Amino acid sequence: MSVFLIVGLGNPGREYEHTRHNVGFDVVDILAQKMGIRIQRLRGRALVGEGMYRGRRLVLARPQTFMNLSGESVVRLCAWYKPAAQDMAVVYDDADLPPGSVRVRAGGSAGTHNGMRSIISCLGRQDFPRVRVGIGAPPPQWEMADWVLSHYPDEAARKVAFDGYMTAADALLTLVEEGVEAAMRTFNRKPPKADANGPQAAAREDT
Question: Active-site residue 21, yes or no?
């Protein structure tokens, strides 16, 4: 039976829960709730849970190595579960996308994301799908490191983020069932440009 591995990136520890950098953990947790999967087994330096979806064995994983060493966990998970290249997807935050927006890609470079850099370096390849969830760029007075490790400031910001997480979870299930091209067609839509000077107008389209 074929295996599909979904890896959500984040940092372990209560102080990092629900921060912008822990998007991957939160999306994987949403998938686990949707599918009744318990993520509690420690394997490959990650917390993992397993279930079935559309006749496929689905593995949800949250690396426990801290973000910058994510690849050390992912390479172990791949050695254990042996998914095909297109049967592993990584979900993570992206400061280059507007808050709550979602983009699916079939492969490519890590960009500025240290967790993805670690994964690509450890695997020695970049031909696997990924789902990026926008967290927006930091305000001018913020350092990037402080921004990604910060919490959402109010209920409105949390709602925008949560809507993006739900969309990312749906994108991942489409990816598992129908493949990356179908997920890209469905979810890589341009956001509405309500304000030509607003953050959405600056969204980078790189589907």
Answer: yes
Q: Which of the following is catalytic: 18, 21, 113, 151?
A: 21
11 is in an annotated binding site: no
- Check whether 66 is labelled as a binding-site residue: yes
Written as tens digits, the pLDDT of the chain (207 aa) is 789 999 999 999 999 999 999 999 999 999 999 999 999 999 999 999 999 999 999 999 999 999 999 999 999 999 999 999 999 999 999 999 999 999 999 999 999 999 999 999 999 999 999 999 999 999 999 999 999 999 999 999 999 999 999 999 999 999 999 999 999 999 997 654 544 334 433 333 343
Angle formed at CA 106 by CA 102 and CA 107, multiple of 5 degrees: 105
The per-residue DSSP string of 11-67 comes to --SGGGTTBGGGHHHHHHHHHHHHHT----EEETTEEEEEEEETTEEEEEEEE-S-G
- Per-residue tokens: 161: 């983020």
16 annotated to bind ligand = yes
- pTM confidence score: 0.90
Query: What is the C-alpha separation between 184 and 59, in angstroms, rounded?
Result: 21
Pairing of strands 46-53, 102-105: unpaired
